[in-house]
Amino acid sequence: MDNFSPLPARQSTVQAEAKTLTDLAYQRLREDIVHGAFHPGDKLRIEHLKRSYDVGATPLREALYRLSADGFVQVQGQRGFRVADMSLEELRDITELRVVLEGMALAQSVEHSDDDWESRVVASFHHLTKAEKQRDPDIQEWEIRNREFHLALVSCCHSPWLMRFHEILYDQHKRYRNLARIDRSSRRNVHKEHTAICDAALAKDIDTLRAANEQHIRATAEITGRLLAESEDH
User: Are residues 100 and 175 in the same domain?
Assistant: First the structure.
């Protein structure tokens, strides 16, 4: 018989609470990094984060190590943690990977789709359309509706690993987009791009869907890359 004894109830509860706090710290830090509350290269000091997030040092360190595994944070040995740098080269790399992996996720999702999937896609596209048609668009609302639409499209993908990498790449791309913001001078019709994606998805035309989605991703990357290059020049 293995020499194994269960954790005492108190110790088990403490570990469960710590995991919950780690998850909470991880989600909040990730959201703030993605949305630009922290800038590339910013130091992430534990003492400062403890006050800002009202979380202990141990859950914060665990969250920061998880974020480093996802590419949002860099570990500096004994010097602590800092927000990961951003570059045009990395943007191109993220774009290429997102095109491939999201295309795979879309194909699997359509292949396993059902009536509920179709309802999610239609509803999320309707909400996104309303956000895009506003005379004075709310950027935060648009971001939420945009994410809901893209997640609905891949919601029948049955590969946990593929979905994990899809989420990381989506947020990495979003981080670049949020840094550069929206190019107001662009004549790009994002709603037309979303309509093409939605129509192909509902028609279950996988090749057209993947092509429309790739065009959508690359258009975002092109504008973001140009604005990032201009900011680097200044």
Answer: yes
